[in-house]
Amino acid sequence: MPELWRALVVGCGRIAGGYNRGPDDTMVLTHALAYQRHSACILAGCVDPDDAARTNFAERWGVPKSYTGLDDALSGDAFDIISVCTPTGSHLSTLRRVFEARPRAVFVEKPLDGNAQEARRMGRMFAEHGIPVAVNFTRRFDPTMHYWRKSIQDGRYGALESVIGWYGKGIVNNGSHLIDLVRFLTGHEATIEHVSRAFPSGLDSDCTVTAALDLGGVQFQVIGLPGSDGARFELELAFADAVLTLEEGGTALRLRGWAQSENFPGERALRRGKWLSTGYGVAMLRALDELLTWHPGGALSSDIKSAASSIELADALRARAWEMCV
Predict the structure, then answer these.
(1) Which CATH superfamily groups domain 5-139+284-302?
(2) Torsional sign, CA 222, 225, 227, 229
(3) Among 155, 224, 234, 299, who pairs with 208 as Cys (CB 3.0-4.6 Å)?
(4) Which residues contact 265 (CB under 8 A, 6 or more apart)?
(5) What are the backbone dihedrals phi and psi of residue 155, each rounded to the nearest 5 degrees, phi first?
């Protein structure tokens, strides 16, 4: 039997294990379930200074060793792969300590503290030592998104005409997901045209922003929502020959083509199309596949370099809108 990669999860919050109810969940939405379900990994340890969070995580996921601090974990045991799931504001400092342990791979949460410059510096440091670092912009690891990306960039649906995205709870913390996904699907970099609205997100040093971006000559509308009535993450990409809509947080999509209208003779209208499930529920498993099979010179669907570009734009939007927000 091949040797299992020993995994350590640092931070025992929602993305670490809380978004899954337990090992029997269908969709893999957390680091804990990804490690439990991946045939080449074993969840060997967890770290959190909060006794209740750490104990609950260890019991729910059957983790044999738990630690109050990262130094204790790294000085007492060796881990092959380390997940950084600590709160925003501590991602980079945790990565610096993880680097000292020289694991075989790292899986870190976005938004890398919203600090693109320092993130890039750290990315170079890991790269120089041959340690792959995947950043959890989850949808980049979704195999369905890879299919749509190729279809879009091959011109299957005609020219891109407009993009609209909806999100809530902070342009850096959550809006960066939207920016990153559009960059991934279209292959275009966005620039800021205009910021029209901003309001507090409930997160320190972040705000929810509505803005118009330019995406290689195509309008990209980023619409920030209060989020008080629920979480919404949706994206519409309109092409000359079809409209692609992503809904339910990225777990469902619909492709609609043009046809003669049944209600208005002589007019063309979008068909209703058909809803399809995406591969969001296996995306974190695909991320582990990429990390475990990575080789020098290889690429990851989402790494520090790609993530930093999306975070940099999100942070620029936050900075531009800050006076409106406060």
Answers:
(1) NAD(P)-binding Rossmann-like Domain (3.40.50.720)
(2) negative
(3) 224
(4) none
(5) 80, 20
Cβ contacts of 297 within 8 Å, gap of 6 or more: none
> pLDDT digit string (tens) for 239-285?
999 999 999 999 999 999 999 988 898 899 999 998 999 999 999 99
The answer to whether the Cα torsion of 280, 113, 295, 63 is positive or negative is: negative
Which H or E run includes 190? strand 190-200
Amino acid identity, position 28: V
CATH class of 142-279+312-325: alpha beta
Q: 3-state DSSP call for residue 64? A: coil
**Omega before 23 within 30 of 0, i.e. cis:** no
- Indicate the domain borders of the chain: 5-139+284-302, 142-279+312-325
Return the amino acid letter for 242: A
Concatenate the DSSP letters of all residues of 102-143 into one string. Answer: --SEEEE-TTGGG-HHHHHHHHHHHHHTT--EEE--GGGG-H
Inter-residue contact 164 to 235 (CB < 8 Å): yes
Backbone angles phi, psi at 195, to 5 degrees: -110, 125
Q: Do domains 5-139+284-302 and 142-279+312-325 have the same CATH topology?
A: no
CA dihedral over 43, 37, 41, 84, signed as positive or negative = negative
The pLDDT assigned to 203 comes to 84
CA pair distance 37, 283, nearest whole angstrom: 12
Cα(152)–Cα(237) distance, rounded to whole angstroms?
10
- Kindly state the tokens that stand for 43: 């969840």
**Tokens encoding 123:** 């990315």
Supply the pTM of this predicted model.
0.95
